[in-house]
């Protein structure tokens, strides 16, 4: 008989269980894949360059993932026990012993967990190779990912299954005991409008001030390196958003529904008379969950924003530092060419640019200091003849404008400001120069800032030092061997420049030294001989791919977890709420109207958290995107998140309506 | 004649497990008639009521109300017809706990998007007619079972339905409450000329009807017409119940 009871319970809530089991299976599958990837031999072989980093990271990530999934299972697993409250109490009234009821809930949990684990492990077996290939693809590694699960991974999975299932079953058994001990009727929700209305208004004020503060943050963020104001603003915005949202859910939204319900011209029209009250009740019940989901969604969006801008910053920095696979100057170009000939490297493109080095002095606004230093000058036409990627991070200039390329001190770049009144030795003063951070031939090839000047200016200007930069792109790398690299190591520094600063620029000069000076002085600069970035590029792409893989996996998992929590909250209506819908049907409410109520409920449950999460995540954009327009990519990322979230809402509505229809024979 | 039921039948389940709930039933109901449907448990009373009220579709046959064959109507049109022309009283009251008495009563008019003035007028009229003015602001939880059923009756009648369907309306009530409710139903039947079709297995309840149709195993077994004397009619009903063998211990004493 007990088997029948369990079977019937599982069958009655099959739609809800299916969503829970699929969400759990996804989590178990991802956990298994991350775990088995850690000790996959093909991954080790293909990424031996990374040592134990990949293994350690996947292990840490799988542990974090498992922990989060476990919390999710504890939380959501409790919904089902709550749903069976009346059933358990009836069993007790009929004389069933308490320990038997507790055992039923215990075994029910074991069965559900076992099914989830079986599907999860199957997913892991099916998708391990696919996920491995995806990882290799993202890391741009051309290697065949072999499917492999070590005995230690299997043993660990078995142990995790037993321990987690046992703990979950015990937790659910305890929840059942508490239900049987309390036996309370459905708790009446206290409306307490005297508290809700002021709390809701205060919440709205908090949210509005947070948004105003966010607008200020867009303006103030660039002062973060020397002012505490942006940090104070961020702290206030976060606090105001989190508490404001809760207070709006607690007070403002129910008050709005209450007002709507009291306006008879609105409320006494169609199903509004019922639905406003129904929604209010559902809102009262779900305040904490909606708030929880809102904050986690905001966190997910903020994380995606940080990841995007972090990746952009690293990528931009990488681009500005390493534009060519191999770069050299006039001192080293001969020896490099010889070495390239020896290993038969396939050159895809080669570039050559003359530059002049001269002394400059100017007041730097960003650094708030007066600078005197040597600077590399390049003509506008030479700059424009280089590949587009060299100019990507720089302000656009025309043939009459100046562009100063410097090293950035902040994480994000701000190209809006300009540099003024730059004095150049024996050349006209540069009144205004736009700013940029992408160095042609790579920042490491330059000892200091660089200036792109109009062709005429370049031709007429004198030079303390003249040099030529060379750059190569290859098909399948430069193929320089270890021995060749050791030989080339002695050419890393081309020459040294000692600047003799006098009272004026005209009197100052640069002394070029071939040999490394014994004692480094403040005014001594080193010109790099060559720069090899092929390996770094590969490493960067691999690291970036791995990072994308992990972030994408976690984001999707978070989305599934949040979506399924909301869906289950909607599906698992208590008997009282189901009865109300049933009554409406009996007294002649049309199917389409009941469907409308379900639709409204779904919309309210899904729309509110995403709107508030979007409002909150705006601050994350402000923290990084200061002084720039909101980038298209961020809109795309947010759009993707909303679409996937909306998809959950749509599925939830369909499943919910199907459940109601089946239950009421509509 | 307002309602004509022609050769309707209804099966539940499939193939071998199929249960023939209604087998080829035909009956007619006049305008303003108070018709009772009686029979033992499982005889098909509720199914017949549900089919006449368009809550269920018959497998075969026709249900013609005011000359319209409702079995040919689309679900949406049936629901509209049901909402405009019919009222319902159930054994379990089917009141919405989240709404107060007034909101429950005016619900059918609100669903029809009637204007506020009409809603107030009809509400006040029903409250006076059923003598429940004092209850209007109370919540459903605060009402006795008898009061709940009267409120349910008020809701069923507020949109002035042409036909009132009552499925075991006194099933959850004590005899005093049941008598009050039945008196009101009779009052409505006489004053408002509302046709009432009531399914019951209680002889006392059925004695308020003008005619009682007895069904057994899905077919019409017989019918008894009220001779104008309620005591006599009650006796006739009990005799018929004895004949079919459907009366239970509480409804019909074995030694009556």
Description:
The complex is a heterodimer of chains A (666) and B (256). With 666 residues, chain A is of the alpha+beta class. Chain A has three domains: 1-184, no CATH class; 188-322 and 536-666, no CATH class; 326-532, no CATH class. Chain A has 19 helices and twelve strands. Chain A has helices at residues 2-12, 14-38, 41-46, 53-83, 85-93, 98-138, 151-182, 193-220, 229-262, 264-267, 272-321, 333-342, 380-385, 455-460, 482-488, 534-571, 575-586, 591-624, 632-664, and strands spanning 326-329, 346-364, 369-379, 403-405, 418-424, 427-436, 450-453, 465-475, 493-500, 509-513, 524-528, 530-532. In chain A, the strands form two sheets. Chain A has a six-stranded mixed β-barrel with strand order 2-3-7-4-6-5. In chain A, strands 10-9-11 form a three-stranded antiparallel β-sheet, with no helix packed on it. In chain A, a hairpin with a 2-residue loop joins β5 (418-424) and β6 (427-436). In chain A, α1 (2-12) crosses α6 and α8 runs antiparallel to α9. The longest helix of chain A has 50 residues, at 272-321. Chain A is elongated, with a radius of gyration of 33 Å. The two termini of chain A are 31 Å apart. In chain B, strands 6-7-8-3-9-10 form a six-stranded mixed β-sheet, sandwiched between helices. Chain B has a single domain (32-52, 77-244), classed as Rossmann fold (3-Layer(aba) Sandwich), CATH 3.40.50. In chain B, a hairpin with a 6-residue loop joins β1 (3-12) and β2. Chain B contains eight helices and ten strands. The two termini of chain B are 36 Å apart. With 256 residues, chain B is α/β, with parallel strands linked by helices. The chains are: A alpha+beta (666), B alpha/beta (256). Chain A binds chain B through residues 264-265, 267-274, 277-278, 281, 576, 580, 583-584, 586-593, and chain B through 55, 75-76, 79-80, 82-83, 86, 88, 90, 94-99, 103, 106-111, 113, 116, 119, 155.
């Amino acid at each position: 008989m007990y088997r029948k009871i369990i079977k019937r319970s599982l069958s009655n809530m099959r739609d809800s269980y299916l969503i829970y089991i699929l969400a759990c299976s996804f989590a178990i599958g991802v956990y298994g894949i991350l775990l088995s990837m850690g000790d996959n031999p093909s991954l080790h072989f293909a990424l031996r360059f990374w040592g134990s980093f990949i293994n350690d990271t996947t292990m840490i990530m799988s542990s974090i993932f498992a922990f989060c999934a476990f919390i999710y299972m504890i939380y959501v697993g409790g919904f089902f026990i709550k749903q069976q409250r009346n059933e358990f109490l009836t069993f007790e009234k009929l004389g069933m012993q308490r320990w038997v009821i507790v055992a039923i809930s215990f075994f029910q949990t074991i069965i559900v967990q076992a099914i989830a684990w079986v599907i999860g492990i199957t997913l892991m077996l099916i998708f391990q190779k696919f996920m491995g290939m995806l990882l290799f693809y993202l890391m741009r590694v051309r290697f065949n990912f072999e499917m492999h699960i070590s005995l230690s991974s299997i043993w660990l999975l078995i142990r995790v299954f037993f321990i987690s299932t046992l703990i979950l079953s015990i937790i659910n058994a305890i929840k059942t005991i508490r239900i049987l001990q309390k036996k309370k009727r459905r708790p009446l929700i206290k409306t307490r409008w005297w508290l809700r209305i002021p709390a809701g208004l205060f919440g709205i004020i908090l949210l509005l001030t947070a948004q105003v503060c966010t607008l200020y943050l867009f303006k103030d963020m660039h002062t973060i390196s020397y002012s505490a104001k942006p940090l104070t603003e961020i702290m206030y915005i976060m606090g105001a958003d989190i508490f404001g949202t809760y207070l709006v859910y607690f007070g403002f939204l129910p008050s709005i529904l209450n007002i709507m319900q009291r306006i008879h011209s609105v409320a006494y029209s169609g199903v509004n008379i019922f639905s406003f009250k129904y929604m209010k009740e559902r809102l009262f019940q779900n305040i904490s969950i909606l708030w929880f989901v809102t904050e986690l969604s905001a966190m997910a969006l903020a994380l995606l924003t940080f990841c995007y801008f972090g990746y952009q910053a690293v990528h931009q920095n990488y681009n500005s530092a390493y534009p060519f696979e191999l770069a050299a100057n006039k001192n080293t170009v001969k020896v490099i060419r010889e070495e390239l000939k020896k290993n038969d490297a396939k050159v895809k493109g080669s570039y050559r640019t003359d530059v002049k080095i001269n002394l400059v002095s100017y007041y730097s606004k960003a650094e708030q200091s007066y600078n005197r230093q040597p600077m590399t000058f390049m003509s506008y036409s030479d700059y424009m003849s280089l590949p587009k990627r060299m100019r990507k991070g720089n302000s656009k200039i025309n043939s009459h404008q100046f562009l100063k390329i410097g090293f950035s001190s902040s994480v994000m770049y701000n190209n809006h400001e300009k540099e003024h009144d730059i004095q150049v030795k024996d050349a006209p003063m540069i009144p205004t120069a736009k700013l940029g951070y992408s160095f042609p031939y790579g920042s490491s090839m330059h000892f200091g800032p660089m200036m792109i000047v109009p062709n005429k200016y370049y031709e007429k200007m004198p030079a303390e030092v003249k040099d030529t930069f060379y750059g190569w792109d290859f098909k399948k790398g430069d193929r320089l061997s270890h021995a060749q690299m050791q030989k080339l190591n002695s050419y890393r520094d081309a020459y040294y420049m000692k600047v003799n600063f006098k009272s004026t620029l005209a009197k100052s000069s640069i002394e070029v030294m071939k040999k490394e000076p014994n004692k480094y002085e403040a005014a001594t600069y080193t010109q790099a001989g060559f720069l090899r970035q092929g390996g770094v590029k590969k490493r960067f792409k691999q690291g970036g791919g791995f990072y994308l893989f992990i972030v994408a996996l976690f984001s999707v998992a978070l989305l599934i977890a949040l979506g399924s929590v909301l869906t289950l909250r909607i599906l698992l209506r208590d008997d009282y709420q189901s009865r109300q819908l049933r009554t409406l049907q009996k007294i002649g409410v049309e199917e389409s109207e009941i469907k409308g109520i379900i639709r409204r409920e779904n919309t309210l449950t899904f729309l509110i958290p995403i709107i508030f999460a979007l409002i909150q995540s705006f601050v994350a954009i402000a923290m990084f995107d200061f002084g720039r327009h909101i980038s298209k990519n961020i809109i795309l990322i947010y759009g993707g998140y909303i679409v996937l979230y909306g998809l959950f809402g749509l599925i939830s509505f369909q499943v919910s309506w199907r459940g109601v229809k089946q239950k009421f024979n509509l | 004649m307002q309602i004509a039921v022609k050769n309707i039948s209804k099966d539940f389940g499939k193939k071998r497990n199929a249960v023939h709930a209604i087998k080829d039933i035909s009956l007619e109901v006049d305008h303003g008639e108070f018709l009772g449907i009686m029979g033992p448990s499982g005889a098909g009373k509720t199914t017949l009521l549900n089919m006449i009220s368009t809550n269920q579709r018959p497998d075969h046959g026709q249900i013609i109300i005011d000359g319209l064959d409702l079995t040919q109507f689309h679900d949406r049109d049936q629901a509209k017809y049901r909402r405009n022309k019919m009222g319902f009283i159930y054994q379990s009251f089917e009141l919405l706990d989240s709404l107060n008495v007034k909101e429950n009563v005016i619900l059918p008019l609100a669903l029809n998007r009637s204007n506020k003035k009409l809603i107030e007028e009809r509400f006040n009229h029903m409250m006076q007619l059923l003598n429940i003015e004092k209850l209007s602001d109370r919540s459903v939880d605060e009402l006795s079972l008898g009061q709940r059923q009267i409120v349910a009756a008020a809701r069923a009648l507020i949109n002035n339905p042409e036909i009132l369907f009552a499925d075991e309306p006194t099933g959850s009530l004590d005899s005093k409450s049941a008598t009050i409710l039945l008196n009101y139903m009779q009052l409505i039947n006489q004053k408002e000329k509302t046709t009432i079709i009531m399914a019951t297995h209680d002889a006392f309840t059925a004695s308020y009807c003008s005619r009682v149709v007895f069904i057994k195993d899905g077919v019409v077994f017989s019918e008894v017409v009220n001779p104008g004397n309620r005591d006599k009619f009650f006796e006739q009903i009990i005799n018929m119940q004895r004949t079919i063998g459907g009366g239970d211990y509480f409804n019909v004493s074995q030694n009556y």
